Amino acid sequence: xxxxxxxxxxxxxGSIPTAVWVSKCVYGIDIxxxxxxxxxxxxxxxxxxxxxxxxxxxxxxxKGFLAVKLSMLSPYVILSEPFVNLQIFLGLAAVLxxxxxxxAEFRGGKGIxxxxxxxxxxxxxxxxxxxLVFFLMLLLTRYVSLSSITASIAFPVLxxxxxxxxxxxxxxxxFAIATAFLVVLTHHKNISRLLSGNENKVPFFRKRKNEEN
Length: 213
Hints:
It is a single chain. By secondary structure, the chain is mainly α. The chain is 69% helix and 0% strand. The protein has helices spanning 3-14, 18-27, 41-48, 50-69, 81-99, 112-122, 124-141, 144-162, 170-186, 188-196, 209-212. The radius of gyration is 17 Å and the shape is globular.
């Protein structure tokens, strides 16, 4: 299949606005008008509660996972350099779709869960390690933003120093480093709130926020 068409499909998959559709169809609200205003798993946890937040997170991860799997429809040899490069671009197209979803007025989330799904599809062992880091930090601190930042920083560390033998492609190493910088950059407001003690924590085992108030 034509590479350009695959990239378009990946973007459209990433554009599925899970949090927006769940908030509107199930709770009768637009999540982008509440909390941080982002249509992602973090805000879903805060506004819709733990169950809905977990569902949104898993669905958003699947978007990145499925987008990368489109590489199987390409003419490239599996695990070749062009194949790995295509996997990265397909995953990034899905992340771009999540951030700027065509199905939701181009107002989405930050793409962290979709990025995790992308990594899970390309390198499952690294992804499993990152998810472990993420949830361990989340259980310890209840800060989704801090958990995302920690996992993103762990990504290049794992690729460059622990799983180096399994990540021979230069593009994948550069992608891991760039990911860490971009996640930290997009979370600069969260970092400021963390330093000032004003960052919101995830309410574990709690129903949606509005029902409690």
